[in-house]
Each structure stands twice: as structure tokens, then as C-alpha cells.
Amino acid sequence: MSELKREKIKYLHIMTDTNFAVTATFARMVNTHMDPSEHFFLVDSNEKEAPDYMKAYENVLSVDHMGTSDEGEKTLFDYAGISENIIFHSLGWHWKLQKKLLERKDICSRSLWIPWGRDLYEYERRSSNPLRSVYYGYTNKIMTSLRKNMSAAAVIFPKDTEKVSELLGGEKKVYEARYTTFSEEDVLRMKPEKRDSESFNILLGHASMKCLEHEKMLNALSHFKGENVRIYIPLSYGDKLYARSVSSYAGEIFGDKAVILSEFMDADEYTALLWQMDAAIFNTERQVALGNICRLIYMCCKIYTLPGGALERELSANGCKTFDSGEIAGMTFDDFRSTEDICREPPEWARDSMDIGKTAEIWKNIFEKISSR
């Protein structure tokens, strides 16, 4: 890249390529509720394209292989060099780029970290293989050190505050924010007049992530394979080898009743699919899939989570009932699909989370505070 699009940037947003449903809607929120001239977005577009409406913004630049190529990294560092404040939407980059960032204390000192789910466990990798164990020890130390060198953080899941404070260390500020940038209008616009099928539709996870324990949950659901069910499994981003394993395993148990979503869907298309779900399973202790879960709860879908996990605790604290994913293996199909105790109207938490104006005010306040530090 030969010429920068700006001479100076007040807020530089650096975004990974993993989830345009989040990054694109966040860029839309900034461009419609804030001063676009103050913000600039660098988006890693490795192997996929951003939505058309995102690419139309003058303050969005898609960079091929930003985290894995010399040219992409140069673009990142060039733009960081002219920016007053840098906002990392996740630190889920290859460890080699994280090492280079760690070496740039001038960048770290101006950086706000917004942790995504994997940011809070990726640095804890372990292996029984001695050589891989040494490799993980080295890369884990780099990732941990980079987190500690960020100047501040904004958590999108309140239950993560204590963990993030521990990772940052010292007296660094951890702001509470939220990332749900789908409006109620976005969701209602895609509501179907009627269901497309008579099957009982189950969403299993939202990505190819081992922490979602897909195979364990497929085993738990296996005694329903004779029922009229369809298991939808989004595997469009995350670990590709793991995705192939899950896809194969699901096919062995459920045959064509397992629907593998291996390609990215645009936000509206995916929201329309969520409206077709009767139940969803997120069997993890982690903070994941907040955009999915907020929409599903708004749709009064039955949500199964891990008891005591971050998702269950947060949703329960906000008056949203979830069900025990650990009980699925022993449930009858009637009990599993029962609509008793699920909401009949969108809960207030879901509606409030979709208030884009309120979400924008939260972020405006955070941006002003990091700018004045």
C-alpha cells in the first residue's frame, strides 16, 4: 500500500476477519451515531469480503491478510503510527504479529483492548507433547505479555471484568460496554410470516471452536436422531481442522439431518435462519456468541447453556432463563422441546441490548475517556 487515506486519525479501529456480523454492524453504528471523520477502520479481509454497506463507508479499509502478510502488517503499523487512539477489536492475531505489537510500546500505550471470547483462553494452550508444550509456553507468554501491555480494556460481557483486570494488571481501567449492534428493527425485518419446515430445529454453537464441545453435544442429542429434527451447526469461522471433524461426526450420527453451515451468511440471511430455530445449545464456560444469543432470546428460542458458566450467570442475572445442557442426554424428546418456562415476549434485556442509540452513547463515553487520558 503506497499512500495512507488519512494524515491523522483520532480513533483507529483494528478488526479481525472472523465475524463481519459484529465488525460491520459496529462500523455502521459509529458511522450513523458518531462523527465518522474521527474514526477509521482497518479490517482484515483474509479469504472473505466485508458486506457491501461496510465497504461503502469512506472510513473503512479492507486489508488482505493484514495479520499474516508483510504488506498487511505494514499497513497496520503505518496507520497505527498516525493514530491518537487505537482500538483492538480482539487480540486474536497470529502470535508472530502479537510479538511485533508487543515490541511497539508506543502502540500499546495508546491501545484499548476489546476482548473477544477467545482472547480470554487462547493464551492457556497446553499439550502433552514435549516439543509442542515448549512452543505453547513461548507463544502463551507473548500473548499474555501483550494483554498486560494494553493501556485499558472495554469488556462486552460484564462477567469478564475481573478476568480482564487480572490480565491487564496494575490499576488500568476496564470499561463496561456492549457489542450487540443489531437493532430491533434489523431482527423484526427478517421475521418470517410462517415457519419453513415442520422439523424441530436446533442450533449447535455458532463457530468452529473446541470450547463449544460439539461432539459431546452431538452425543447427548443422538437419542433424538429418530425424531423429526434438524441440527444446524455453524462452522464458517474458527479452527478449520476441527470444523471438518465436527462435520464428519455430525454426519455419522444424524446423516442429512445435520446441516453444516460452512460458508459465511450475510447478517440478514443469518437472522432469518435464527428465526427458524426452536432450541440452541452453547455448552461452554466461555463468553461467546453474544450477538446470536441476544437475537435468539429476543425470538423466545429455548437456550441450553452450561450451568455456572459465564453465559448462564450473565443471562440469569438479567432475568433470562436458560436450560441445563448437561441434562440433554437423559431427557425425553418431549421434555427437550417443551416450551414451558420459556418467554412468550422478548425480554427487556434483549430489547435494551438492541437499542443502538444507547449502545452508541456507551461507546462515545469510552472513546472520550481514552482520548483525554
Description:
This protein is α/β, with parallel strands linked by helices. The chain folds into 2 domains: 190 residues, Glycogen Phosphorylase B (Rossmann fold), CATH 3.40.50.2000; 170 residues, Rossmann fold (3-Layer(aba) Sandwich). The strands form 2 sheets. A 7-stranded parallel sheet has the order 3-2-1-4-5-6-7, sandwiched between helices. Strands 10-9-8-11-12-13 form a 6-stranded parallel sheet. The longest helix is centred in the middle third of the chain and has 20 residues. The two termini are 32 Å apart.
Key attributes of the depicted protein:
single chain, 373 residues, alpha/beta, Rossmann fold, 2 domains, six-stranded parallel β-sheet, 16 helices, 13 strands, 16% strand
CATH fourth-tier homologous superfamily of the largest domain: Glycogen Phosphorylase B
Q: Bin the strand percentage.
A: 15-25%
Sheet with the most strands: spatial strand order:
3-2-1-4-5-6-7
Count structural domains.
2
End-to-end distance, in Å? Answer: 32 Å
How would a textbook summarize the main sheet?
A: 7 strands, parallel
Return the average pLDDT rounded to an integer. Answer: 91
For the record, what CATH class of the largest domain applies? Alpha Beta
Rg of Cα set: 21 Å
CATH architecture of the largest domain: 3-Layer(aba) Sandwich
The helicity comes to: 40-55%
